[in-house]
Amino acid sequence: VRVVLFLLLFSVVQIFSGKRLMAQPKKLVYEEKYFQLSFFPGISTNGLYSADFYNYFSINLTSGLSAGNHYFELGVISNLNIRSTSGIQIAGFANIVGSYSFVNLTRYEEKQLRESGVTAELKGFQFSGLINYVREDVTGAQFSGGFNINQLDVYGFQAAGLSNLSGRNVTGVQLSGLVNMASKSMTGFQVSAAHNFTKGSFIGSRLSAFNSAGV
């Protein structure tokens, strides 16, 4: 009887311990590497799990995947960073900051991760042949042959062959071949061939075929 009771008690403790463990948010720990060389995502000096590393200097002979970069990253085709990035990014095709930031997380874990201050922003400079994409804020400058796309605020300078698109506020300068958009507000200077647009207030100067604000 004592053995049976002990086994039952042990089972109950294990069940509740497991529930408490499952309730804990995932804590993502990243390693720092001074230099990384990549041939393809997953085939690099950081091994198969290249997304687990922050690199100080990174060279991607085709496309690279990392948690983020501190100083310099060059991608012949593209650079993909899961978390925030600083310094200089250069890509023949695309720079992407903030992709898959909350992959494989439950809604509760994602909420905990956001509350812990995890960000996916750019502080630095981006150069690309077609697109620069940042999931959160940009502080610095972006240059693209096609598009600069940011979901939150921009503080600095944007130049694009086609369009600059910001999901919230822009403070600085936007230059594009077709369209500049600051979804909520714009403070600074805008120049485009077709349209400068903001739904909120505009403070500064702008030049385009069509300009609109407060729509």
Kindly list the characteristics that best describe this protein:
14% helix; nine-stranded parallel beta sheet; 2 helices; mainly beta; 215 residues
Helical residue percent?
Answer: 10-25%
- SS strand fraction: over 45%
Query: Alpha-carbon distance between the termini?
Result: 77 Å
Average pLDDT across residues? 83
Record field, number of beta strands:
20
Specify the overall morphology.
elongated
Tell me the structural class: mainly beta
Q: Tell me about the biggest sheet?
A: 11 strands, mixed
Order of helices and strands: HEEEEEEEEHEEEEEEEEEEEE
Please tell me how large the radius of gyration is. Answer: 22 Å
Query: What is the tally of helical segments?
Result: 2
Strand order in the largest sheet: 2-1-3-5-7-9-11-13-15-17-19
Q: Give unreliable regions as ranges.
A: 3-27
